[in-house]
Amino acid sequence: MLKNARKIDIETIVLLAILILLTLVYLVPFVWLVLNSLKTNTELFSRPVVWFPNPPQWGNYVRAITDFPFFLYLRNTVTIIVFHTIGALISNSLVAYGFSRIQWPGRDKVFILVLLGIMLPFQVVMIPTFLLYQQLGFMGTLLPLIVHAYFGNPFFIFLLRQFFVGIPKEITESAKIDGANELIVYWKLILPLAKPALATIVIFSFMNNWNDFIGPLIYLTETRLYTLAIGIQQIMDRNDPRWSILLPAGVIMTTPILVIFFVLQKYFIQGISLSGIKG
Question: Can you list the residues of the chain whose pLDDT is less than 70?
Answer without folding.
Answer: 1-8, 237-240, 267-279
